Amino acid sequence: MTRLPPALQPLWPAAKVVHRAATRSVGRATRSTGVGGDRAVPRTALPDSRATTAAEPDHVRIHVGAPAQALQRPAAEGGPVPLTVWDEASSVEVPERFVLAVDHGRLIGDYAATVTPGGILDLQTSPYFGIRGWHEHPIYLRSRLPETTHLPGTTASLASPASTRNYYHSLMDALPRWAVLTEALPDARPDHVVVSHRTRWDAQLASLVGLDRFHLVEPEKHLAVDTDRLLVPSLNNVRNLAPRWITDWLRRTLPPRDVTGRPRRLYVTRGSAPRSRRLVHEPDLCPQLERMGFTRFDPGAVTVQEQIDHFAAAEVVVGVHGAGLANLNFAPEGVRVLELFAPRYVDPGYWAITSNITDSTYRYLVADPAEPGRPQRRMNRVQDDVDLPADRVLGAVEELLAT
Predict the structure, then answer these.
(1) Dist CA 314 CA 265 (whole Å)
(2) Which residues of 182-218 are buried (b: 16+ CB within 10 A; e: fewer)?
(3) Is the CB of residue 7 less than 8 Å from the CB of residue 273?
(4) Mean per-residue pLDDT, 54-77
(5) pLDDT by residue (tens digit) across 162-203?
(6) pLDDT digits (tens, 9 = 90+) for 359-384
(7) Are 328 and 317 contacting, i.e. CB atoms less than 8 angstroms apart?
(8) CA atoms of 181 and 195, how far apart (whole Å)
(9) Which of 235, 247, 178 is closest to 206 using CA atoms?
(10) For 130, 168, 192, 262, which has the most beta carbons within 10 A of its beta carbon?
């Protein structure tokens, strides 16, 4: 999630504050002076794509795939105490699914920001982590935009802010954009698709979905392309709360191929590197879990298809919060899940995915000192290790197995 080296990970919350402040300051200067000519940063931004369409109707249109929806879920159960974050996550407004079509649109950076020919940044299709308004979008850390490359014909953008470096965001943000595109514009045949495909998992996902039949463009830091016609599907995974249609689409599109002989109980490891959200007492825990029928599983050590197959066979999954748990999308009906957290990074994303699966059971366990009232926006110690004694985890596992 962060780009700081492991030794500096504890500084990430402060670094994010500095990053936002620098973006506001630099952007204020570059927008006011118009530095860069044709390569100037966007002169302004609009918060949603309908406003962008209204501002430039001759160049921008919206193609709707499905209406907005309200999601209501019961708060997650777990311990040691109920946490505010679950109440905050129980209700979410999921916006409509749509494709923004921009004649002569541009894409900028590894976050693939959408910029109209009139110089408007469309924030709804160009979100970024932890910003509090368009003035803090990292496109405004640039004094001017990179040299542009022209892509003739139609270009579709599936990139998300972290899909170049995180399996969860590739699976839950980038790929569902393809689903939105084919839903809203079923006859669209793009000449180019901007999507991460250089990491091992991204290349495999692109192949499994069939994106490798297109000319693929990697979203990179200095990406700047202008297009004849740009198609940007909306991001529907608001606040990582996984509307059910995403899970359903992934299960249909990426089915298991071979679950024969796969373990029915998985312990999903994060490895042993410090400051990587590892489980500190994993060496003590694993032998005892093995006696309960669990298999230690490292998703990063196998192919994407093997990850899908393992999770499709798993009746019980235990693991620390991490991208490998995105494979819960493929778990069978009735799956039971125990997710482990550090006290200052509790994220509801995998609870949301689990709740999309029929007859599933989800429990959480938070290391001390848990802070019941800490709001989601301040759950920002992203890489803190999880210091849960083995006996506490085993007790929670026994309770889960008894449900």
Answers:
(1) 6
(2) ebbbeebebebbbbbbebebbbbbbebbebeebebbe
(3) no
(4) 96
(5) 877 899 999 999 999 999 999 999 999 999 999 999 999 999
(6) 999 999 999 998 888 888 888 888 89
(7) yes
(8) 13
(9) 178
(10) 168
pTM of the full structure: 0.94
Residues contacting residue 211 through CB under 8 Å, at least 6 positions apart: 158, 178, 193, 195, 197
Task: Choose among 281, 246, 252: nearest CA to 365.
Answer: 281
Please answer whether residues 363 and 338 qualify as being in contact, where contact means their C-beta atoms are separated by less than 8 angstroms. yes
Residues 6+ apart with CB under 8 A from 269: 279, 282, 296, 297, 298, 319
Q: Tell me the β-bridge partners of 103.
A: 229
311-328 residue pLDDT tens: 999 999 999 999 999 999
Please list, in sequence order, all residues whose beta carbon lies within 8 angstroms of the beta carbon of residue 137, skipping any fewer than 6 positions away.
23, 27, 45, 113, 121, 123, 126, 128, 131
Taking a C-beta distance cutoff of 8 angstroms, is the pair 270, 320 a contact? yes
CA distance 313 to 307: 10
Cβ-proximal residues to 88 (8 Å cutoff; 6+ apart), any chain: 375, 376
* Cβ atoms < 10 Å from Cβ of 377: 10
Domain boundaries, the chain: 6-66+96-239, 265-402
Contact 379, 346 (CB under 8 A): yes
Cα-based distances in Å from 167 to 233, 237, 335: 19, 14, 21
Quote the CA–CA distance of 386 and 338 in Å, as a whole number. 14
d(CA 382, CA 403): 30
The beta strand positions in 212-256, using DSSP E, are: 215-217, 224-233
Which structure tokens are listed for 116?
A: 């109209």
What is the fold of 265-402?
Answer: Rossmann fold (3.40.50)
3-class secondary structure, 12: helix
Q: Tell me the CA distances in angstroms from 215 to 108, 182, 189, 205, 376, one per residue in order.
A: 18, 17, 11, 15, 39
Model pLDDT, residue 8: 60
Residue for token pair 């060496």: 283
Alpha helices in 189-320 (DSSP H): 200-209, 244-253, 282-291, 304-313
Token pair, residue 123, equals 């924030």
**348 vs 364: CA distance, rounded Å:** 10
